[in-house]
Write a structure and sequence with these properties.
The complex is a heterodimer of chains A (about 110) and B (about 500).
Chain A lengths: L1 H19 L4 H22 L24 H32 L12
Chain B lengths: L8 H15 L4 H29 L2 E4 L10 E4 L1 H24 L2 H5 L2 H17 L3 H19 L5 H32 L4 H8 L5 H19 L7 H5 L5 H26 L4 H24 L4 H22 L2 H32 L10 H4 L1 H15 L5 H15 L3 H27 L16 H19 L1 H16 L1 H9 L4
Antiparallel strand pairs in B: 1-2
Helix pairs in contact in B: 1-2, 1-5, 2-3, 3-5, 3-11, 3-14, 3-19, 5-6, 5-11, 6-7, 6-11, 7-9, 8-21, 9-11, 11-13, 11-14, 12-13, 12-18, 13-14, 13-17, 13-18, 14-16, 14-17, 14-19, 14-20, 16-18, 16-19, 17-18, 17-19
Classes of the chains: A mainly alpha (about 110), B mainly alpha (about 500).
């Protein structure tokens, strides 16, 4: 399963970079979305893929007995998703506004400040 | 009161002040007063913090009383406290400068709340002892900077902002990836704890791989070669107060993060990692200064010089000797004040001369000799003319380079210093010395500049003071560098329960 996830994450990173290298603003945006999702899945996978073992302490015990899923990684992903959502929402508005001002979605035509 | 609460103040005050000014969004007077008072309060807190850190060593605050390494810690070591103080100085100067330069339209669209949020993010990044928390603070300051960058909505701003946003989001994603891999490797997020556990990792190649991911992520933020292209495309587009606070602080957060991770965590394969840093530093210096030579717009020249100066700071980290780190810390102290000041002066040149283009400017020396003096001090300090602050910063670094026998780096550093002087003289000749071009461009009606002169004058006085009192500043930088070179102290302060 981990191998499968690793391949999937690799594909996501590759697709994201490919999309970001295109000229269209919309594809740039899709690239950014894929990139943040790829990073989230990566954290999810490196923390260990566990099934059906919630990190709950049994009644009477002091610590978790046996293996359990890592809750910290999921907390990280949750934070990263929220941040990513906010930032991407900003990016959508920015690109929309940029399109209204510049009247093109071709990144190659945005060289005025270079 | 427990003094460790003090560490949180530079983060909490801007957040509270930012929230208050959001409430007073339509009341410009209240917003401005809050801006000046709030940043002044942070300045006081920062001075007390650095004083306490100087007297009592590294201070730690366990947020919510969760013990390290499980909870998030805020750590104030000397480097962090110095950075917070510099951020507070820049923030205060920006707030005063904004009184007379920020348009009412921008104030209504949340200029002040965004500025406070930015400063909170910057201070949070300097003080946190948790690597994921560092990512969160990076995002906080990024979001605020995005919004500040596009206030005004002009075409150039949009074009610049798309590049700025895209490359910074790419950098954040790489940073997050690196954190993920590091967590998978050592199972901790507390930086001191990570440093301990990294020594027990069996596969040093994997550690170096993660280190390289951090290097790329932070180098984008610091605008190091070859990842700096977003900076000259965007930094000259917003209003001057925003450019100045960006120029002073934002890239330096990246530099600070590099200093932090490559002195505390990734010191296992110094030969490899710091060799790469050295080459990056050399090329960053060189490309930045050559880029500036080809520009004829004041803010763009200054933007390219940010890049070349970042190279010097990275050089200090790359050489990784005690003297080099002292030089690096000294350089950061000198640079933040000088760079923000140069942008402030550029804004005044625009208001008094009517343009940012060197070809359209002229005759400013005759009309405004005070401004000419205020330009000369930071400009010559940037180029490293004695007895100003930049001379000592460069001198320490170059001496460290000679001692480490990094001849190429030393040669390039000297050459870049010369070219910096060339750029500054170019601005001087064109804007101040030559006669005003005919026909003269229209300058808006005269207005009172007192606040602007006070801001730039104060920063220029600091530049002179760092030059004159170089010895005490050197001792401060030396102590900060010692703490960086002995990460054991940081680790003990965080994990040993010492508060």
């Amino acid at each position: 399963m981990t191998t499968l996830m690793a391949i999937l994450i690799g594909c996501l990173y590759a697709a994201a970079i490919y999309m970001m290298l295109r000229r269209s603003m919309v594809k740039l945006l899709i690239g950014l979305i894929l990139l943040s999702n790829a990073a989230n899945l990566l954290i999810f996978t490196v923390a260990g893929l566990e099934r059906g073992v919630p990190p709950l302490i049994a009644k009477g015990a002091e610590t978790v007995v046996g293996g359990s899923a890592d809750p910290l990684a999921q907390a990280l992903i949750l934070t990263a998703i929220v941040i990513g959502f906010g930032v991407l929402a900003f990016a959508v508005v920015l690109l929309h506004r940029a399109y209204e001002v510049i009247r093109t979605d071709d990144m190659n035509e945005m060289k005025g400040t270079d | 009161m427990d003094m460790s609460v003090l560490i949180a103040l530079p983060v909490i005050i801007p957040l509270i002040i930012g929230a208050l000014s959001l409430v007073a969004l339509n009341n410009h007077g209240v917003q401005r007063i809050l801006g000046v008072l709030g940043t002044a309060a942070v300045l006081v807190a920062a001075i007390v913090l650095i004083w306490q850190t100087w007297l009592n060593g590294i201070k730690v605050l366990e947020v919510g009383s969760w013990p390290a390494p499980f909870g998030i810690v805020l750590v104030s070591d000397l480097l962090g406290a110095i950075m917070v103080l510099l951020a507070a100085i820049t923030g205060f100067a920006t707030a005063v400068y904004s009184l007379k330069t920020v348009r009412k339209r921008f104030e209504r669209f949340g200029y002040y709340p965004l500025l406070h949020l930015l400063l909170a993010g910057v201070n949070g990044a300097f003080l946190t002892g948790d690597i994921f928390n560092l990512y969160v603070w990076f995002e906080v300051l990024l979001v605020a900077s995005f919004a500040l960058l596009i206030q005004g909505g002009e075409r150039a701003q949009m074009e610049g902002a798309i590049k700025y946003v895209t490359l910074n989001l790419l950098s954040s994603a790489l940073f997050l990836t690196a954190i993920g891999l590091l967590y998978g490797l050592v199972g901790s997020l507390n930086m001191a704890d990570i440093a301990v556990r990294l020594q027990q990792v069996e596969d040093p190649k994997m550690v170096t791989l993660v280190a390289m991911l951090f290097l790329i992520a932070f180098s984008i933020k610091a605008a190091a070669f070859p990842l700096f292209f977003w900076l000259p495309a965007s930094y000259h587009t917003p209003q001057v107060a925003v450019s100045a606070v960006f120029a002073g602080l934002l890239t330096k957060v990246g530099v600070y993060a590099l200093y932090r991770v490559f002195t505390l965590m990734f010191t296992g394969e110094v030969d490899f990692t710091h060799q790469i840093l050295l080459w990056m530093a050399v090329f960053t210096m060189l490309t930045g200064v050559l880029g500036a030579a080809s520009q004829y717009e004041v803010r763009r020249i200054l933007s390219f010089h940010i890049i070349s100066q970042i190279g010097y700071m990275m050089l200090g980290l790359a050489l990784f000797t005690p003297l080099a780190l002292i030089g690096g810390v000294f350089y950061i102290m000198h640079h933040i004040i000088v760079k923000a000041n140069l942008f402030f002066v550029a804004g005044m040149m625009y208001r008094l001369g009517g343009s940012f283009e060197l070809k359209q400017l002229g005759g400013l020396y005759k009309k405004h000799p005070g401004l000419a003096l205020l330009f000369m001090i930071p400009a010559f300090s940037l180029a490293g003319v004695p007895p100003l602050s930049g001379f000592f910063a460069k001198f320490i670094l170059i001496k460290a380079g000679v001692e480490a026998q990094a001849w190429w780096a030393v040669a390039i550093a000297l050459f870049v210093g010369l070219f910096t002087l060339f750029s500054m003289i170019k601005i001087w000749n064109e804007a101040f010395w030559k006669k005003a071009p005919e026909p003269a461009i229209e300058v808006p009606a005269p207005y009172r500049n007192t606040a602007l002169y006070w801001t730039t004058g104060l920063l220029a006085a600091m530049t002179v003071a760092i030059g004159i009192f170089a010895q005490p500043i050197y001792v401060l930088a030396e102590t900060a560098a010692q703490q960086l070179l002995e990460p054991q102290r940081y680790i003990e302060a965080v994990l040993g329960g010492a508060k």
